Amino acid sequence: MDSFDFKFLLMKIARDIDVDIEPHPYLENEFKEDNPLALEVMKTGKRVVLSHN
Q1: Do 23 and 7 meet the contact criterion of CB atoms below 8 Å apart?
Q2: pLDDT, tens digit only, all 53 positions of the chain
Q3: How far is CA 3 from CA 22, 26, 33, 52, in A?
Q4: How far apart are alpha carbons 24 and 7 in whole angstroms?
Q5: d(CA 45, CA 42)
Q6: Which of 5, 6, 19, 28 is the most interior residue, by most CB within 10 Å?
Q7: C-alpha separations of 19 from 15, 35, 36 in Å
Q8: pTM of the complete model
């Protein structure tokens, strides 16, 4: 699955929960404290664990 497909999957899941959710997927190696958005998510975000078949 490439990043476009993954974002599309997250958008479909989010739409079923709340249309105001706007997913912004990051690769694990991009999720660092020197990235302002990633740092804000680490400080204030909620962990979401998904499982799909």
Answers
A1: yes
A2: 777 888 899 999 999 999 898 888 877 888 888 989 889 988 998 887 777 65
A3: 15, 9, 21, 17
A4: 7
A5: 6
A6: 6
A7: 5, 26, 25
A8: 0.54
